[in-house]
Amino acid sequence: MTRPRSTLMLLIATVLALAVASVAVGQAASSERRLYRWTDASGKVHYTDALPPEVVDKARQELSAQTGLVREAVGRALTAEERLEAAARAEAEAVRRTWIENTRRADEARVSSFRSENELRAAYAERASILNATLASLQAAIDAQRESLMQQLALAGDAELAARAVPERNAAIIDELRREIINQEQAVLLRAAEQQALQEELERLVVLFHQREAKGLVPAAP
Hints:
Elements: H1 5-30, E1 34-39, E2 45-48, E3 60-64, E4 70-74, H2 80-111, H3 117-161, H4 168-214
Antiparallel strand pairs: 1-2, 1-3, 3-4
Helix pairs in contact: 2-4, 3-4
């Protein structure tokens, strides 16, 4: 049976009215009035429906005026010094991430040429042997310089006991030996750090080698 035209028009009007009401409810919800909870310089807590100009950069909470629930927490604005510190931290983090990525790529390039773990370890054992020899040579030089320094100090002590001035050449040799010993000791520390870094690199590459091996990426032995 065909509905009368007036009935259809009534249905259409009802649907439109419901749609408009739904939009209005949504707009009302989105524009719900808020309250602001903030604390002044003396520690007193305030609840206002608008923020005073002097506290717009301060920490605050935005609450629903209907429910009293916190809708959003806003931290205070950073000071110029804090912004600089945050920028420095972000830059340092970017540098760290870049270093990690570069290290990963370098490790991939290093390990890709080895066909077995033994081959990889042998290559690093050779490098470690060179570093060990360098450290032994540096230590021998330090021992010899210390012996020479003790001799020069003894000569200077004899001169002082005899109430004589320490010869200029003797004093110059003592100063030079002390500088050389300091330089050699710094070189030992540097080579020891290289030795530690080499061992850590080897352990890292062994792990990476096994990962590549599991994926079938290790070149076959001839």
